[in-house]
Amino acid sequence: MRRLTLVVLLFASACSAGPAPSEIVPGNAPAPQPAAASTVTAAPSSSVGPAPSCDATASLRPGALPAAGQMPAGSTMERILKRGRLIAGVDQNSYLMGFRNSFTGEIEGFDVDVARQIAKAIFGDEKKVQFKIVTSAERIPMLKSGQVDVVVRTMTITCERLKDVDFSQVYYQAGQRVLVRRSSGITGVDSLKDKRVCVASGSTSLGNVVNRAKTTVSVPNWTDCLVMLQQGQTDAISTDDTILAGLAAQDPYTEVVGARFTEEPYGVGVPKGQDDLVRFVNGVLEQMRADGTWSGIYGRWLNTLGPAPAPPAGRYRD
């Protein structure tokens, strides 16, 4: 009995040695920030001097679409047809626009369905597309290097970007707003002067808010911004209403506030100089408007933004 008592006392002593768990990991330890998060103090610019001026949303007029599987000889589309798949740069972190379905593992969303329609027009099969995941900052480099045929990733058409890549006509008209925690007191962009705002690097949203907030934090993906908002590391997220609608759908304790304070016309990005592919994509978009495909895709993914509006009308410079 004495030996048993001694063992119990020694065991109890061993268990009580050392600090309690709360002493090892402080409960108020700061949450880690996403990888590559950085504070931005000025709007990024790829060139010195004023921004270029152009009629950015005027694209190349489409001709009649060739039959699927019968692309013009020597065309960019024929090269894609011979390869056997379209390579499209898309997102996997923007719920509703381009995201990975956690149940199926498939990439889905409004932008993804637009890319599938381009593949369908070339091959007659919307499944003949390889999706390459790209961040906002990677969109133009991926097009310039030829690693993708097109980018369909909430990409705003701007004169600055047209120096490096070409665009289709506008396939969706978005606008920048603000996402906050409910009951935050923030009512829109004019409430950000003393707040911390999160944006994605390489997006037009960054330049639109950097001088409107006390602190602007740049991260690779919009889901990184949502995590920072949930952890109290930022007060708001500001970007296109399409992206914010997806973030709000993932967190019922957030809400989109304020009116649009920018216009963000989305276009399909195409490598510079591939005019035939630009005209082909524009033909696909015209067809999507005419046969109701565009409205069907909107209803599938974006009805949280309200009833389907009329698709953007094509504008051409030739």
Q: What gross morphology would you assign?
A: globular
The average pLDDT value, as a whole number, equals 89
Q: How many strand units?
A: 14
- Unreliable stretches: 1-27
Number of helices: 10
Distance between the terminal alpha carbons, to the nearest Å? 100 Å
Structural class designation: alpha/beta
Beta-strand residue fraction = 15-25%
The largest sheet, given as strand count, sense and whether it forms a barrel, is: 6 strands, mixed
What order do the helices and strands follow? HHEHEEEEHEHEEEEHEHEHEEHH
Topology diagram in text:
Elements: H1 2-16, H2 21-24, E1 38-40, H3 76-83, E2 86-90, E3 93-94, E4 98-100, E5 107-108, H4 110-123, E6 129-133, H5 139-144, E7 150-151, E8 165-174, E9 176-181, E10 196-200, H6 204-209, E11 215-219, H7 222-230, E12 236-240, H8 241-250, E13 254-257, E14 264-271, H9 275-291, H10 293-301
Parallel strand pairs: 2-6, 2-7, 10-11, 10-12
Antiparallel strand pairs: 1-11, 3-4, 4-5, 8-14, 9-12, 9-13
Helix pairs in contact: 4-9
Salient structural properties:
318 residues, six-stranded mixed beta sheet, 14 strands, alpha/beta, three-stranded parallel beta sheet, globular, disordered N terminus
Architecture overview:
The longest helix has 17 residues. The radius of gyration is 24 Å and the shape is globular. It starts with a helix and ends in a 17-residue tail after the last helix. By secondary structure, it is α/β, with parallel strands linked by helices. The chain contains ten helices and 14 strands. Helix 4 crosses helix 9. The protein is 31% helix and 20% strand. Strands 1-11-10-12-9-13 form a six-stranded mixed sheet. Strands 6-2-7 form a three-stranded parallel sheet. Strands 3-4-5 form a three-stranded antiparallel sheet.
